[in-house]
Amino acid sequence: MHGSRTVASLVRGTGGDDAPPVTIPRDPAREAAERELSKPPYHENDPSLLQRALNRFWEWVDDLFTAAAGATPGGGLGVLVIVIAVLALIGALWWRLGTPHRAPASSPALFDDRPRTAAEHRAAAEAHAAQGHWNQAVQERMRAIVRSLEERALLDPRPGRTADEAAAEASRTLPAHAPELHAAARSFDAITYGARTATEPTYDRLTTLDTALTQTRPTLSPTHEGGHR
To answer: Is the dihedral of CA 31, 36, 39, 45 positive or negative?
Structure first.
């Protein structure tokens, strides 16, 4: 009985059975409830901030795949097939093009600091080719071509010359081989600065060009022809 009277007094007030019930305004009641619920004992088992963020992320991923499955023929299986196809395409492009590299603002010089003869560059090219090192073989064969033209006075020896510049200058006196010279320069640049991989056919083309150039007579301008008369 005592317990019943206590509960009743809390509900109806402390002034007896005839007293009006105690009413608490809505806002103060909400604030009191929020203060009570904000106490640490109520949140001992709450997930951490990181766990809540991860839960939100995985919910977003689940919603994304659910939406994709609903819009894709075949449902979840269709989504899986699309994902595998995209990954295969990315892998194929990566294998074909290699690791992306920023293109240099200007092509570096064709030769290093130590001058070597055309014969030395040819010997180095053949040694690399014998071991299947096609990148180095192509580079050395291109250097042999340009050094040979310098030794024949078809190109002025000039430190810092690039492969493109050498091809452009040599094409003036050897116009019949201009396309091959420019193609050789592009191969050299792609392998040396574009992270491309050389192949044996690429090296064979440069070797054929090197041999042909040594057997080709230059086309002299009228000024040079007059000087030889």
So the answer is: negative
Alpha-carbon Rg of the chain, whole angstroms?
41
Convert the pLDDT of each residue in 56-86 to its tens digit.
Answer: 877 876 776 677 666 656 556 666 766 776 7
0.90 surpassed by pTM:
no
DSSP 177: G
Q: What distance lies between CA 153 and its chain's CA centroid? A: 43
CA distances from 21 to 11, 26, 33 (A): 6, 15, 20
CB atoms within 10 A of CB 142: 28
What pLDDT digit, counting tens, does each position of 78-104 carry?
A: 667 667 767 777 776 676 555 554 444
Helix orientation angle between 178-193 and 134-151, rounded to the nearest 10 degrees: 130
Q: Exposed/middle/buried for 96, CB within 10 Å: 0-12, 13-18, 19+?
A: exposed
> Among all chains, which residue has been given the structure tokens 């977003």?
60
Cα atoms in the 13 Å half-sphere on the side-chain side of 206: 32
